[in-house]
Write a structure and sequence with these properties.
Helix content: 40-55%
Low-confidence stretches: none
Strand content: 15-25%
Distance between the termini: 7 Å
Mean pLDDT: 96
Largest sheet: 6 strands, mixed
Number of helices: 14
Strand order of the largest sheet: 8-7-2-1-9-10
Shape: globular
């Protein structure tokens, strides 16, 4: 029997209006948004549904917004998984799905995580760029040879790596990579996530994770930083600390999930980015998306067919 893996998107998937149909049509989904509002002491749900977009795009808002939308959809779905994973921020959603973290605890954590990540590098000083095509080793070498801080930070899927660091260093590395024949696209982000410039954010955030209540996951959570499953509260906490300033090894995580028996991937949350990556990583992997109430029954049917 192939295993069912729930996967959750990270930052960049947010858009004004996401989750509004869930609020309107699902009591379980609405309850998650109401809990987020109460936990954070503000009307986060109204910002998600109505904007303004520039406020939703702020890291400290987009992180709890995506978490809330993903968990609202998860609760509305009402199904269990055999394993879970999330892309960067999505790892918090995966831990809620696995029972490692209560939703309220996760919401408080990602609000602080977003604040500290934004404050680690002043806006305009850092940058990120997506590299499409190109050889992994050559991209890593181009970053190593560029003066300043720049490094690969997202190993997303074959043919897609993201680099991040000082703005000038990212530009220098991008020119080297373009000269090798790969395409490079600057990303509209407010900070250079998952590179060593995020170490101050990691150090500030560590005490919050140490104080937070963690449980042993009820199913393995495949973590970004190691591309390996964690099964204890201590290992889950440690991986989330290290995740902030280290690369997201998404391709390696999905390959490990497939190796361990995952046959159906259910992407839960706004957007369909992860399903596209997973199909590029393993063409034989089955994927379904849950981003609105209209997707719920089809996903339930696919999950039950796997059981």
């Amino acid at each position: 029997m192939a295993k069912v893996a729930f996967v959750f998107p990270g930052q960049g998937s947010q858009k004004v209006g996401m989750g509004k149909a869930l609020w309107d049509e699902s009591e379980a989904g609405r309850a998650v948004f109401q809990t987020a509002d109460a936990t954070l002491g503000e009307a986060l749900s109204q910002l998600i549904f109505n904007g303004p977009e520039d406020q939703l795009q702020l890291t400290a808002n987009s992180q709890p917004a995506i978490l809330s939308t993903s968990i609202g959809l998860l609760r509305a779905l009402g199904e269990r998984c055999d394993a879970a994973a999330g892309h960067s921020l999505g790892e918090y959603s995966a831990h809620v799905a696995a029972g490692t973290l209560a939703f309220e605890e996760a919401a408080r954590l990602v609000r602080q995580r977003g604040l500290y990540m934004q404050e680690a590098v002043p806006v305009g000083q850092g940058a990120m760029a997506a590299v499409l095509g190109g050889d992994v080793a050559a991209i890593e070498q181009a970053c190593a040879e560029a003066e300043g801080v720049v490094e690969p930070v997202n190993y997303n899927c074959p043919g897609q790596i993201v680099i991040a660091g000082d703005k000038a260093a990212v530009e220098r590395a991008s020119e080297r990579i373009k000269a090798q024949g790969a395409k490079v696209r600057a990303l509209p982000v407010s900070a250079p996530f998952h590179c060593r410039l995020m170490k101050p954010a990691e150090d500030r955030f560590r005490p919050h994770l140490e104080r937070a209540a963690f449980n042993d996951p009820q199913v393995p959570v495949y973590v970004n930083v190691d591309a390996a499953p964690v099964t204890t509260a201590a290992a889950a906490r440690d991986a989330l600390v290290r995740q902030i300033s280290r690369p997201v090894r998404w391709e390696q995580s999905i390959r490990k999930l497939v190796e361990d028996g995952a046959g159906l991937f259910v992407e839960i949350g706004p957007g369909r980015v992860l399903a596209g990556m997973i199909k590029r990583i393993d063409k034989s992997a089955a994927c379904v998306n849950v981003e609105s109430p209209s997707d719920l029954q089809g996903a339930r049917d696919a999950i039950r067919a796997q059981r």
